[in-house]
Write a structure and sequence with these properties.
Length: 540
């Protein structure tokens, strides 16, 4: 029997909950002590794999945070006429960067969709990595937020906020294989955190009332090209009801033979899923064409191999959907921290830097959001903390300065090292160990670096027969365009977003703007019949 206090806490409104309970068979999930966990199995097949939901409480504070998320507007606004320039179908689920469908554990649906699916997709399209091998571990951020229980639901944006500071650890670096993941474990090797540091959540948005005709176009545009002309567009996070009824798409329709929802309703804080595409030619009724492709985390027994088409006209039940941007990151400086009996509840870290070798406090600091906290028990192992925020100040000082690690909580820092990497972030240039070991958590540790490693890049960073990039003394760059006459130069990032453009009159050096982000860039030069494309690497 469902605990009345628990059910009351989960109400969004009494009538919506009553309708949901009546429409969907909910079987409570119990822990080893026979206590209700707050999660439910809604699979109508009593012998089928669990379809887990963990209803979330919409508190005034959470509603305030959701309301504060900015509305997304495409860079190229599509009106009623221009909308015809969108393709009739986009299906990321069939593309190599998309990860295989999996089964979530416990109440981790928000992490499964927002991390396992959405973040993996957005990270993989930056580099072309395949989803079969490069998959973000959905329990990474979740296990900093779930208070030590795999049955606890979280809000997806809390995990995305962590990824702004740490990226996301991959499944290959997680202690347990997928399917045997535990709600209390953390990645325990420095390499796991370093490997996660090559991408970041930069920001996220929402589209309110996505079921309106104009906002359906906006959702489709995000999926097509992120609204800015990218080679591949994005996936979409949503919270939804699970009162599904479905039929098979008839012959004559696109995607014939797949499952499509005839009912898609219920309180929208019940379950988190994601959208991986759309098709304007999918239908049950040829007078009502068009559907989004929903991907769930209930394994392949749900819908068609884990997916279900949701008609556009059923999408009006959604209050909002959420979109995340992921960008590349180059880790130049990191702390490798070995912890012993670190108390995971209430702990945390702040790194810092100051110029000079006789300073006692940092002048610049870097926090890590809600990472490395919020769980139960203790942790013994290694973590990595990115300090690349201090790279420019450190390198301009000639490789001299003091790095700090501030901590809170309980336990011991058994060992601490500062790791310095080359301009790719891949090759370790030097490891500088702190002389102090086995220091109690709460004690500020420091590493003084005095001309320990040459940090000035070579004068010529990359050279080809046609284009030369060189670094200036103050971390600026110049680009040499060798052609006579007028050349049009455009510099894009790896997603095709224009970073800067200029005209070169004859062969000349051109100073690049300081606002140009770090990382690999694509330089395109047009000069009459000559068209050149070259990669360069910007390091600060």
């Amino acid at each position: 029997m469902v605990n009345r206090t628990l059910v009351a806490r989960l109400f969004i409104a009494l009538w919506t909950w009553a309708f949901f309970v009546e429409a969907v068979t909910m079987k409570p999930i119990f822990n080893a002590n026979g206590e209700e966990t707050g999660s439910y199995n809604v699979n109508p097949d009593p012998e089928g794999e669990p379809w887990m939901v963990t209803p979330l409480e919409m508190t005034p504070d959470i509603r305030k945070q959701l309301d504060a998320i900015p509305e997304w507007e495409p860079r190229r606004t599509l009106g009623k006429v221009a909308a015809s320039s969108l393709p009739s179908a986009v299906n990321h689920f069939k593309e190599p960067e998309f990860r295989p469908v999996f089964t979530q554990k416990g109440g981790a649906c928000s992490a499964a969709s927002g991390t396992g699916y959405v973040y993996t997709w957005e990270a993989n399209i930056l580099t072309g990595a395949e989803g079969t091998t490069n998959r973000c571990m959905y329990f990474y951020g979740y296990n900093f937020l779930n208070r030590g229980s795999a049955e606890t639901g979280i809000w997806w944006y809390d995990a995305w906020n962590i990824f702004k500071y740490t990226g996301c650890v991959r499944e290959a670096d997680w202690p347990s294989p997928l399917g045997r993941e535990q709600g209390t474990e953390w990645a325990a090797t420095y390499a796991a955190y370093h490997n996660a540091n090559f991408d970041r959540c930069s920001t996220y948005y929402k589209i309110s009332k996505p079921g309106t005709p104009e906002n359906i176009i906006k959702v489709k545009q995000w999926m097509f090209d992120h609204g800015r002309g990218d080679p591949k567009g994005g996936c979409v996070q949503l919270n939804s009801g699970v009162d599904f009824e479905e039929k098979v798409i008839p012959q004559g329709s696109a995607e014939a033979g797949s499952k499509i929802a005839t009912v898609y309703d219920g309180p929208n804080t019940i379950h988190a899923m994601m959208l991986a595409g759309y098709n304007d030619d999918v239908y049950l009724d040829p007078n009502k064409k068009g559907a989004f492709l929903l991907v769930n985390s209930w394994g392949t027994s749900f819908g068609t191999k884990g997916t279900l088409w949701i008609p556009y006209d059923k999408f009006v039940t959604e209050t909002e959907v959420y979109l995340m941007e992921v960008v590349t990151h180059v880790p130049r400086l990191e702390f490798s921290v070995t912890l012993k009996d670190y108390g995971k509840s209430g702990g945390g870290f702040t790194s810092g830097f100051a110029k000079g070798t006789d300073v006692s406090n940092p002048t610049s600091t870097q926090t890590y959001g809600k990472a490395f906290s919020g769980n139960t028990g203790t942790f013994t192992g290694e973590i990595g903390l990115d300090c690349s925020k201090f790279w420019q100040e450190y390198s301009q000082g000639g490789g001299t300065g003091t790095f700090f690690l501030q901590s809170k909580g309980s336990g011991t820092v058994a060992a601490l090292s500062l790791m310095l990497y080359d301009e790719t972030g891949r090759d370790l240039v030097k490891e500088i160990r702190c002389s102090k070991t086995n220091v109690s958590i709460g004690t500020t540790m420091s590493i003084v670096v005095e001309n320990a490693v040459a940090v000035t890049e070579p004068l010529i960073v990359r050279r080809t027969d046609n284009i030369t990039l060189r670094k200036l003394s103050r971390a600026g760059y110049e680009l040499f365009i060798p052609f006579a006459g007028v050349s049009r130069v455009t510099i894009d990032d790896l997603q095709g977003r224009e970073q800067t453009t200029f005209t070169s009159n004859g062969s000349a050096w051109h100073k690049l703007p300081k606002h140009l982000n770090t990382g690999i860039k694509i330089v395109r030069v047009g000069n009459g019949n000559k068209q050149l494309v070259e990669k360069i690497n910007i390091v600060r």
